């Protein structure tokens, strides 16, 4: 009887995978936040995106959602290959000293990220979400990833870091989507990737124009335009 109950209440492969990927994504977000080089942030984003794409394949195999195989493949191509390649090409034209610009000290940024992560996990934990099939912990960590990504956009003062923050925010949303609604229609799921592709084009043009005019990727000079 005890073995039967253990089998019934044992976590599924999707739950284990979602929680593991969520932890890896959050840790990579912290690493992006404190990274001194934008090139390191690009590599961390590629790793983060690879983990999220792997979760899509796992969920597709375990829950027999064939559309997720297509979505995972598109995510792999766009977020692991194309986006890092575009950002790396932009960085080859930029000086290294702009990569580590930030508005707060490293300790302050990390402490702020820890507080935001705790807040996100606490908020999800207080919601009446109870399901044997839903990895609630992974959902809570996905909320923490989104909040830390917002922090990355706010506290870093170079356009590459801000772009990485925006792109990694989309990874947090994708993670939450795989956990909550893996069976969304393919057209709805691909729409999120299309939005990301548009953002990549916009940020790519912005980086080139800004670097061409100021010979820097730092956004501190733009603060003078505030009224």
The secondary-structure class comes to mainly alpha
Question: Which radius of gyration do the C-alpha atoms yield?
Answer: 19 Å
Please bin the fraction of helical residues: over 70%
What is the number of domains?
1
Task: Summarize the SSE layout with pairings.
Blueprint: H1 2-9, H2 13-34, H3 38-63, H4 67-92, H5 106-126, H6 136-155, H7 159-180, H8 186-214
Structure description:
- This protein is mainly alpha-helical and 227 residues long.
- It has one domain (12-225).
- 77% of the residues lie in helices and 0% in strands.
- It contains 8 helices and no strands.
- The longest helix is centred in the C-terminal third of the chain and has 29 residues, at 186-214.
- The radius of gyration is 19 Å and the shape is globular.
Summarize the structure.
With 227 residues, the protein is mostly helical. Helix content is 77%, strand content 0%. It has one domain (12-225).
Give the key terms:
227 residues; mainly alpha; 8 helices; 77% helix; disordered N terminus
């Amino acid at each position: 009887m005890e073995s039967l109950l253990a089998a019934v209440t044992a976590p599924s492969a999707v739950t284990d995978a979602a929680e593991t990927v969520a932890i890896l994504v959050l840790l990579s977000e912290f690493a992006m936040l404190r990274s001194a080089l934008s090139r390191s942030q690009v590599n961390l984003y590629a790793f983060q995106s690879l983990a999220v794409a792997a979760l899509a394949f796992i969920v597709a195999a375990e829950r027999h959602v064939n559309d997720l195989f297509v979505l995972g493949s598109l995510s792999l191509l766009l977020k692991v290959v194309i986006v890092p390649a575009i950002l790396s090409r932009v960085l080859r034209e930029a000086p290294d000293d702009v990569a580590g610009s930030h508005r707060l000290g490293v300790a302050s940024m990390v402490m702020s990220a820890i507080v935001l992560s705790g807040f996100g996990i606490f908020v999800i934990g207080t919601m009446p979400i109870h399901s044997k099939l839903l990895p609630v912990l992974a959902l809570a960590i996905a909320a923490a990833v989104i909040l830390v990504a917002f922090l990355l956009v706010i506290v870093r003062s170079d356009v590459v870091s801000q772009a990485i923050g925006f792109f990694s925010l989309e990874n947090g949303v994708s993670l939450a989507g795989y956990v909550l609604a893996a069976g969304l229609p393919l057209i709805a799921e691909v729409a999120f990737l299309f939005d990301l592709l548009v953002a990549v084009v916009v940020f790519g043009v912005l980086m080139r124009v800004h670097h061409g005019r100021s010979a820097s990727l730092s956004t501190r000079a733009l603060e003078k335009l505030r009224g």
